[in-house]
Amino acid sequence: MAINPIRVMRVLWRAFCVVAPLLFIILIFSAGTELHAHGIPLADFRRLREFWPAIMRDMLPGLAAMLLAYWLAARFVRSLYGLQKLKQGFDFLWRWRFGQAGFKPYLLIQEGRISKDKDKVLTRIGGPGNLVIYHDSAVVLERAGRLTRVEPSDFVPVEAFEKVYKAIDLRPKRKTYEVKAMTREGIRVTCEVDLRYQIKGRRDKEPTERLPYPMLRWEVLKAATCTWKCEPLPGVIEDEELDWEKLVILAHVETVLRSVLARYPLDQLIGPAGWEEDEPHPRQEIREELERRLRSGVRELGVEILSVGLGDIVVQDEVTEQWIAAWKAKWERQMMQRRAEGEAEYVAQVETAKAQAQAEMILELTQTLRSLVADDGALRGRLGLLRIIAMLRHVSHDPRTQSFLPERTMSALTVLQDVIVGTEGQQGS
């Protein structure tokens, strides 16, 4: 970052306003000491020119006392806040008393965490300083144990003793977590949950390149302050502090899914899909209930559930797995038998429809031939033949009997019709 001359001049002026009065007081006391030592009246300042070297010498203890006070204050700051170097204590005291000349020190906030200078003064003591907050994060600031403000992505100046309380990741997140539970019979099972969630954002504001995740300050504040303290449990809880993301998984997903699975027997949980044609599979009901209860439960955390996926339910006990394998084989055989019976019934229905269509076609032909025999005139004979041909064409358009009249038969009927009406003879002439 480039140095700002105005800031530098402002800092130097503040330093001069603090140091100059002290130096002037030390100078007055040193001059008075020399005048008193040589028996010169204090009002006779004209002879001070003779004692300037002695006056400067007398000022050295006062200057040393000022530097010693500065050094002791820096050591105190270093010890109090656990800084690594004494120079950090000097720099903090200078910035705190006289202001910040440049952009440094600063912290980078990215992906919901401090990505640089974690052990520096800004994280332990606080400002003066600056924060560089990326577009995917938001920051909650605090000072002296009191929350001060919530800041979105931007260059944010930090005031004296103001520091980062919590950095929040605004991006959509995906977590795959394995939940251990028990069925209604007390059999241990595991189920994998695929969860997508995000800090709840503004719906009335469209995302932009500069602000891809429009945030709600109140929701960010809820996520930052919903921290739980607990004792570590090996294999379950490794940290003493549970933030909003861990609470979504441990306090909501795991708790809700365990209570839901405990209401179902094992045969319903591990049955293949389509176990009942008229009813949804229990796993689908479990997923819908889990999603519904999660959406209402995580509102207090400032979180929004995007989607919930439920994996297969796996049994932990080896003996139970063998029993389930045998039960599944029997169950699948029953399903295959039911499917075969359904296919046979379908084939029988198709054959019945074909036979009915053939019977209807024969009945119509018989009726037409009878009417043709009754007509003894040539004209009537031709009309009868034409009726037969028309009837056959009508039958050819019926999907049920179309397969019984091939294309060659229809071509022959066309030629026969031309002969009857005399078209062929006219074409030949």
Explain this structure to me?
It is a single chain. This protein is an alpha+beta fold and 429 residues long. The chain folds into four domains: 89 residues, no CATH class; 67 residues, no CATH class; 144 residues, Tetrahydropterin Synthase, Chain A, CATH 3.30.479.30; 76 residues, no CATH class. It contains twelve helices and twelve strands.
Strand content: 15-25%
Series of H and E elements = HHHEEHEEEEEEEHEEHHHEHHHH
- CATH class descriptor of the largest domain: Alpha Beta
CATH superfamily of the largest domain: Band 7 domain
Mean pLDDT: 77
User: Based on the structure, what is the oligomeric state of the protein chains?
Assistant: single chain
Unreliable spans are 423-429
Features:
429 residues, elongated, three-stranded antiparallel β-sheet, 18% strand, 12 strands, alpha+beta, Tetrahydropterin Synthase, Chain A, four-stranded mixed β-sheet
